[in-house]
Amino acid sequence: MESVFTKCEECGEPIYERDLRARFNVCPNCEHHYPLSAPERVRLLIDSGTFEELGTGMTAGDPLGFEGYGERLEKARKKTGLDDAVISGVGRIGGRPVAFAAMDFRFIGGSMGSVVGEKIALTMETARDADFPLVIVPASGGARMFEGVYSLMQMAKTSVALARFEEGSKPFVSVLTDPTFGGVTASFATAADVILAEPGARIGFAGRRVIEQTTKERMPDGFQTAEFQREHGMVDRIVHRLALKADIERLLGFVA
Amino acid sequence: MILDFERPVKELEERIVELRRLAGESGELRAEISRLEEALDAAKRRIYLNLTPYQRVQVARHADRPNFRAYRDALADDFYELSGDRLYRDDPAIQGGFARIGSRNVVLLGHDKGKDVRSRVKGNFGMAHPEGYRKVKRLYELAGRFGLPIVVLVDTPGAFAGREAEERGQAWAISEDLMALARAPVPVVSVVIGEGGSGGALAMCAADYVGMLENSYLSVIAPEACASIIFRDASRAEEAAEAMKITARDLKDHAIIDEVLPEPLGGAHNEPDAAVDAVGEALQRVLSGLDGVDAKSLLHARYERYRRMGSHTAGHSD
Question: N or C, which terminus of chain B has less Cβ within 10 Å?
Answer without folding.
Answer: N
